[in-house]
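Table 4 source record.
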Amino acid sequence: MDSIPTPASRAEGCRSSPILPAPGTIAAIPLTHPSHRRLPREPSSTTMRAFVFPCVAALMTAINAQQIITTVDALGNTIVEQVTLNAAGVPVTQILQTLPAGIPVNPTSTSPSTTVPAATTTPLVQTTTQATRTTTPLTTTTPLTTTTPLAVTPPVQQGPVGQPASPPAEAGDPTPYQYTTTDANGDPTVVQDVFTPSFPATTPFTPTSTGSILDYSAWLSMIGNATAGLNQPIASQIASEGVPFVYPVLHDYIFPLSFPKTYEVSQVLLFNETMTNYVAVCVLVDSSLTLASEWHRLFMEYVTPLLQRLSEIYQGSQLRLALVSYGPSDSLSEPILAKRYFLPPQDIMKELKGHAENLGIGQTGSGGGMGMAALEGYAAAIEMFELFQNDQDLKPLRPLNGAEQQEKSTRTVSSYLLHLAAAPPDATTRPSYNSCPKLDDLSWDTMAVELRKARTSYQCF
């Protein structure tokens, strides 16, 4: 039977063990396991210090290289700036935030913070905690820009009269203003005054007219089936009915000639033209606004029926229409505002009906107390009639072969002058803008004689 070991025997056995060293001695720990596998080598504390210290030094250097400073600008705002060093070692400033005056500043709240815990090492086990970088956002609820109102400098006065401090309550009310001038010594002086607008009274013009308006039944009962009255000259019909505009000065000197009136000129050479009849009508108008206000009615009730009646009388003849408009003697460069030479009616009727302002109608006043340059208008109209009547004297080119026979023909021209005016003539006694020297002595006393020479029938409305 085995004996139970005593404590003394256990201690003796431990002292004789080949693995544990004897007390007070140092024995080497075997580097190999009985299985002959190499154990992993643990890092030593010296290696860990050599790794951690450069990292901490580099981190501290980066933190120290960035400085957060604050400054105050001229407006009292706090400017948060970050000063860093670039690669060349030159300080570079970057504005992080602008805080209005009165906002507390905490620069550390806008700067990044870095926490580096200390490394804990053991002889066999190394525990390393990685540095965590916590960055607070740079944006806050404080607006970056301020809305501090700036002092508004009033505009510099342009010219001697200053702008009124406040406009009048209603249009036409008195307006106070100031006027800057200089006194006798040359010192600036500001004069206060009040502008009171004035409006001259206007006198409406109502044209006088004579005559009566008949119903169709009354007119038919008066003439019955007779047509003799309809075949009378148009000038006589219009004169008997009455017109809205009367030219009293011309009425004393000029009277309607026989209507219609034709004449013959000497035989001239024409190419392929025999017995060609022409009806030449010139419309003479003033440019007053008064006539323009009644132009549509005059055109529809007088001008258009006159042209239709002439077409009926001279069937087969060619109608030619011209126009002369005149204004006051001091208007623009000359009193004759527009002239249209004799053309087919459709070329001028379109403007007369829808665009009368292109022909000078309604472009001026009534001449005030001076009147209108009517004598200049008559001179221009007579010149156009004479030019149209004598245009065949400018013979066309003939072929060099003189053996070719050419027919001789006679042209018959009927000329009519229609004057529509709403303002009296001025005191001009002789025309100044005529082209024909024969009309240099034209006057109101010789007007009827000149119209007879031009073989022109005349009617004034």
